[in-house]
Write a structure and sequence with these properties.
The structure holds two protein chains of two kinds. In chain A, 17% of the residues lie in helices and 25% in strands. Chain A has five helices and nine strands, in the order αβββαβββββααβα. Chain A has helices at 43-46, 76-82, 128-132, 136-139, 164-173, and strands spanning 52-55, 60-64, 69-74, 87-90, 95-97, 102-107, 112-116, 121-126, 148-152. In chain A, the strands form two sheets. Chain A has a six-stranded antiparallel β-sheet. By secondary structure, chain B is of the alpha+beta class. Chain B has three domains: 3-63 and 158-216 and 225-253, Gyrase A, domain 2 (2-Layer Sandwich), CATH 3.30.1360.120; 69-156, 2-Layer Sandwich (Alpha-Beta Plaits); 304-376, Aminomethyltransferase beta-barrel domains (Elongation Factor Tu (Ef-tu), domain 3, Beta Barrel). Chain B contains ten helices and 19 strands. The chains are: A alpha+beta, B alpha+beta. Chains A and B meet through strand 6 of A and helix 1, strand 1, strand 2, helix 3 and helix 8 of B. Chain A: The glycine cleavage system is composed of four proteins: P, T, L and H.
Chain lengths: 175, 387
């Protein structure tokens, strides 16, 4: 979802942030409480035992449980890059989605970013509390502020995604 | 976002032009982006976009606008030249007063928007957009040659600093013995800034800006002095550095045009609701660039009109299509965002005259869904100028 998160829509084209490594602190609101791991004691974890956690290059996370139900959200890194979230929208449920298809969007004052489904399945719920209070996204993007719940069709699709360690080194390499 | 792209981004930063305030941006942890070929801050660490925006509405924000192009036109034909390429009646512009204006091509299309300040009788200080720099310089040169005008055209370098917000005046007043109460919106003066400027040179201060708030634009040709001046202001409690992100949301709330969005070479001043820039004398004489087309639009009243919209839900963005109540496509959004001040979405578009009326309902296609919006008067947020 990040590809538009940092845009500044002058002249329609979207400049990239050029010194994000130099200023990586910009992306963290507090003293490096930076974590792209699922927050303990939140629904995406508590829903079942030992969910499979995966990440996409578009900065979504997915927590997949044994009954094929999974929670989707955007990473802490992405939420910090987006800044003050002003609006969250998730497509009407239930609806079938393909891996890589847009399932909603998150917005700050100046940018709107699509959120893409990491896997194929049926979108069955959205996080109404988050939609009503979009600012919650910045508080706990890796936990209570999950975006949508999906019933996964092909659990094998998860294998092509990154685990936490791979995602962190992907972030490192991207800078 | 692969590493190759990121590495290129680094070299991009190195190859970008830097304003005299570049190191100040880094010191304040500015998140730097490529803007019109300059490395410019979009946000600063520790202030979100909304916080930056609100700070300017309540306190004072310092904006580096040194990337903008500052011109000085003088010589016997300077007035004639500017009255050829803009519709502004300069006879009505008294010394040390300014006017928003537009550079026009032969079709009456807007080449750029600009602020013209008369200094002496035949000397004008003109500021144009950084993004139009090359185009404008070429345009100005070819117009001067085409009409055989005898003008002297100089570019002014160094720092250009905008100080904006209700506390701007109190902050600037601390740096000068000049009484700023005597300097009103749309006027300017060369002012001494204590010992802050090299050789104690006076610097050009104009009252105005592009946020809708009271404020000043200070032109400091000596780069080192510009740095000292900016740092002195930033040391004050009431002043914070503000980046491009808030600059854009502030100008949008103030209902002002952004070149490349509301204004293009296909848009004439009548459609842009900038008819007031056309001087009365020029309406009669009709000799400025594109006058035939512009004056025709003025009388025929058939052009689209720049209009403000408010809506809820996702914010309209540049390029979203706009539909009338019957579902007919009627245009697209030129700028849009959530308004931090109004806490609802504001956007601008061009509408046919029968729809460009307060209260008309239109629909904006955002992410494949048509969302209702309502036409409102501009500006969205009332201006707060010192008149």
């Amino acid at each position: 979802m990040l590809r538009n998160a940092l845009n500044f829509p002058l002249k329609t084209s979207l400049p990239r942030v050029l010194n994000s490594k130099l200023n990586s602190a910009v992306f963290t609101h507090a003293i490096r409480m930076y974590s792209n791991e699922i927050t303990k004691d939140t629904l995406p974890l508590k829903y079942g035992d030992n969910p499979v956690i995966r990440y996409t290059k578009n900065h979504e996370w997915i927590a997949s449980h044994k009954d094929s139900n999974a929670f989707i959200g955007i990473t802490k890194y992405a939420a910090d890059a987006l800044g003050d979230t002003t609006f969250v929208e998730v497509n009407e449920v239930p609806v079938d989605v393909e891996a890589g298809e847009s399932i909603g969007s998150v917005e700050s004052v100046k940018s709107a970013s699509d959120v893409y489904s990491p896997v194929t399945g049926k979108l069955i719920a959205s996080n109404e509390a988050l939609i009503e209070n979009p600012a919650l996204l910045n508080e706990d993007p890796m936990g209570e502020s999950w975006l949508a719940k999906i019933e996964i069709t092909n659990p094998e699709e998860l294998e092509s995604l990154m685990d936490h360690k791979q995602y962190e080194s992907f972030l490192e390499d991207s800078h | 976002m692969n590493s190759k792209v990121a590495r290129r981004a680094y070299s991009d930063l190195a190859s970008l032009k830097k304003t005299p305030l570049y190191n100040i941006h880094l010191k304040h942890n500015g998140k730097m982006v490529d803007y019109a070929g300059f490395a410019m801050p979009v946000l600063y660490n520790g202030q979100t976009h909304v916080e930056s925006h609100n700070w300017v509405r309540k306190m004072a924000g310092l904006f580096d606008v040194s990337h903008m192009v500052q011109h000085r036109f003088s010589g016997p034909d300077a007035t004639k030249f500017l009255e050829q390429i803009t519709p502004t009646d300069l006879a009505e512009l008294k010394p040390y007063s300014s006017s928003l204006s537009v550079l026009l091509n032969d079709n009456g299309g807007i080449v750029d928007d600009t602020i013209i300040t008369r200094q002496d009788n035949d000397t004008f200080y003109v500021v144009t957009n950084a993004g139009c720099r090359d185009k404008d310089l070429k345009f100005m040169e070819s117009e001067a040659v085409k009409h055989g005008f005898n003008i002297k055209h100089e570019l002014i370098g160094g720092g250009l600093i905008a100080l904006q917000g209700p506390e701007a005046s109190a902050a600037l007043q601390k740096l000068t013995t000049e009484n700023l109460k005597d300097l009103h919106f749309g006027h300017s003066k060369f002012i001494s800034m204590g010992g802050l400027i090299a050789n104690n040179d006076k610097v050009h201060v104009s009252r105005g800006g592009y946020t809708g708030e009271d404020g000043f634009e200070i032109s400091i040709p000596d780069s080192a002095s510009a740095v000292v001046f900016a740092e002195t202001l930033l040391d004050m409690e009431s002043v914070k550095p503000i980046g491009l992100a808030a600059r854009d949301s502030l100008r949008l709330e103030a209902g002002m045009c952004l070149y490349g969005h509301e204004l293009t070479e296909e848009i004439n001043p009548v459609a842009a609701r900038l008819s007031w820039t056309i001087g009365k004398r020029h309406k009669a004489e009709g000799t400025f660039n594109g006058a035939k087309h512009v004056l025709h639009e003025l009388n025929a009243k058939t052009s689209l009109l720049r209009s403000g919209l408010v809506s809820s839900g996702p914010a309209p963005r540049h390029g979203n299509k706009v539909y009338d109540a019957e579902g007919k496509e009627i245009g697209e959004i030129t700028s849009g965002s959530m308004s931090p001040t109004l806490k609802q979405n504001v956007s601008m578009t061009y509408l046919p005259r029968n729809l460009a009326k307060t209260g008309t309902e239109v629909f904006i296609d955002i992410r494949g869904k048509k969302r209702p919006a309502k036409v409102v008067k501009l500006p969205f947020v009332p201006t707060n100028y010192y008149r």
